[in-house]
Amino acid sequence: MIHRNLQHLITTALEDTPAVFLNGARQSGKSTLIKNIIAEGHPAEYVSFDDLTILSAARSDPQGFVAGLPRYVALDEVQRVPEILLPIKAAIDNDRENSLGRFLLTGSANVLLLPNIADSLAGRIEVMTLYGLAESEIAPRKRSIPWLEAAFSGQIKKIMPKEPLTDDLSLEERICRGGFPEIVRRASPSRRAAWFASYISTMLERDARDLARIDAVQHLPQILSLCAARTASILNYSEFSRTTQIAQTSLKRYMSVVEMLYFITELPAWSVNFSKRLVKSPKLHIADTGLAAYLLGVNPARLRAERTIFGHLLETFVVMEVKKHLSWFDEPVRPFHLHAQNGLEIDLLLENMRGELVAIEVKSSASVSANDAKPLKTFAALQPDKLRAGILLYTGDTVVPLGEQCWAVPISSLL
To answer: pTM of the full predicted structure?
Structure first.
């Protein structure tokens, strides 16, 4: 079984928090992870709301259902029965001192986008996100220090793992595979395609109807395919509306459903002015590049031939790999993109709680020049006191200094 790097944070949170909510896309490995936590010693009993009998019992009498639960319990797919969250809140409040680690909840919808869930357990729950498998989880390698720690401490010379890659997959092959555990286990492209087709159909036909209470699900496949075609681009609702012929008000609702189900993720815009961060347009990324490649109908050979498509998917691949690293990093770090009025653009900007920054540009080339680092150097001049490293991720295999605080770093350092 593949070890998930988020596991130690979950077990630590259960020691001082009444409830931990682990959310993420369906088939990302949540059930397997919590069953492993139980197998390694947590006393919770596993209960899944994918069981129709259990689901019916919880919906018909939420308070009685919670009252009948064991002292420690893991409730899987809790977004299917949000009615139980108020009784869970009451159970925690009635015995707060003895409630630590009592509830381990999972859900296949972004809990932060479901107000009923977020409000019910405010102050009583720690929310974590499990993404698909990171490359460093599929084939772990020893490191001197974690990738993010090396970046924020400026120890770029230590950013490469101490061991070589254990497989010979190309970046194109990794992009088309993605990180769903079931896909990683399937070697045949045709079997992977069959899985993606079934996955999308199930998510849009069942989960979209259940969560969003919308009937016009026929628009969702078109919107999802358009998101794949626009991955690594600024989210422009006007352009989306013109392309789909769907009114912006309806389109935004459909997009919120697609985001809620973890098909896409939005990268907010960074600005020195905190209020401007809330109004600037985010950057859109498909949450799994294997899914994006399936939706676009591309394979590794086509990505080698069509470098524009490869460039967009490579940027999304890097962004999602970094977000996976962020999910298990020991300190809070928020990801952004930069799209300034003066034309300066940075693909990925990381900011920690001290205001320190790491700027990352992605280049789909095996060679770099000083000119390639121009955006990073410009940003370094604007934020000399806050920038800890400017990193140009490229497809070569050597760490190369490109000037003060700026480095060319192999994408393989993330893997």
So the answer is: 0.94
Domain boundary among 129, 148, 167: 129
Instruction: Specify the pLDDT at position 338.
Output: 95
On whether both 193 and 228 belong to a single domain, the answer is yes
Of residues 213 and 388, more confidence is placed in 388
Among residues 68, 99, 129, which one ends one of the domains?
129
- Domain housing 66: 7-129
Q: Is 2 a member of any domain?
A: no
Residue 1 lies in a domain: no
**pLDDT tens-digit profile of 60-110?**
999 999 999 999 999 999 988 988 988 998 999 888 878 899 999 999 877
Q: Is the domain of 80 the same as that of 139?
A: no
3-state secondary structure labels for all residues of the chain: CCCCCCHHHHHHHHCCCCEEEEECCCCCCHHHHHHHHHHCCCCCEEEECCCHHHHHHHHHCHHHHHHCCCCCEEEECHHHCHHHHHHHHHHHHHCHHHCCCCEEEEECCCHHHCHHHHHHCCCCEEEEECCCCCHHHHCCCCCCCCHHHHHHHCCHHHCCCCCCCCCCCCHHHHHHHCCCHHHHHCCCHHHHHHHHHHHHHHHHHHHHHHHHCCCCHHHHHHHHHHHHHCCCEECCHHHHHHHHCCCHHHHHHHHHHHHHCCCEEEECECCCCHHHHCCCCCEEEECCHHHHHHHHCCCHHHHHHCHHHHHHHHHHHHHHHHHHHHHHCCCCEEEEEEECCCCCEEEEEEEECCCCEEEEEECCCCCCCHHHHHHHHHHHHHCCCCEEEEEEEECCCCCEEEECCEEEEEHHHHC
Q: Does pLDDT of 244 surpass 70? A: yes
State yes or no: pLDDT of 119 exceeds 90: no
Tell me how many domains the chain contains: 2
Whether 62 maps to a domain, the answer reads yes
